[in-house]
């Protein structure tokens, strides 16, 4: 025969397990609502698009970074008071570079489906340059953060790692491999 203390312990364990299940369900429900909200908030902006994508529609403020193919500028659309990042790439006759630019533009187009990736606003070109206009994610890069703090707490490492993994996982689900 089972003792009273064992029965109580088993009831407590069952109650604890049920509470944990309820908490998990609440957490999952709140995450789903958050994902729904963020995907609704991140839908491509269509109503107030500029009639033409021309570089004079943007006001440039500063250089955010330099890369292999060009520079990234902080810019804004004065009529919308929205800050954006504009990647400016000097066009060359090399086919390989053209493919890289086109691929990046296609990726930015599908990025709006994930809250862990920067959303693309526009891609256009002139005779000499290609322009990729994307969401401005202020706050700097992870590399800059590490340069300032020199190390991160375990919870921050887990948080940033999870965000990176979710972004890459979304791209993989679309057949896009990030190198």
From TrEMBL:
Residues 1-48 are annotated as: Disordered. It comes from the Eukaryota. The keyword ATP-binding applies. ATP binds at residue 91. Residues 1-10 have a biased composition (Basic residues). Keywords: ATP-binding, Kinase, Nucleotide-binding, Serine/threonine-protein kinase, Transferase. Residues 18-40 have a biased composition (Basic and acidic residues). GO terms for molecular function: ATP binding; protein serine/threonine kinase activity. Residues 58-179 form the Protein kinase domain. This is Protein kinase C delta type-like.
């Amino acid at each position: 025969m089972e003792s009273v203390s064992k029965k109580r312990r088993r009831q407590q364990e069952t109650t604890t397990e049920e509470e944990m299940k309820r908490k998990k369900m609440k957490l999952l429900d709140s995450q789903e609502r958050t994902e729904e909200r963020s995907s609704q908030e991140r839908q491509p902006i269509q109503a107030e698009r500029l009639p033409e994508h021309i570089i004079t529609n943007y006001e440039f403020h500063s250089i955010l970074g330099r890369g292999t193919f060009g520079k990234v500028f902080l810019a804004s659309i004065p009529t919308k008071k929205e800050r954006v990042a504009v990647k400016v790439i000097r066009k060359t006759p090399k086919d390989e570079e053209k493919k890289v630019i086109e691929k990046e533009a296609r990726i930015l187009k599908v990025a709006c489906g994930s809250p862990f990736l920067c959303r693309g606003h526009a891609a256009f070109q002139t005779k000499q340059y290609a322009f990729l206009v994307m969401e401005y994610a202020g706050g700097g890069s992870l590399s800059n953060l590490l340069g300032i703090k020199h190390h991160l707490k375990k919870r921050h490492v887990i948080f940033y790692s999870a965000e990176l993994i979710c972004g890459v996982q979304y791209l993989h689900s679309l057949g896009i491999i990030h190198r």
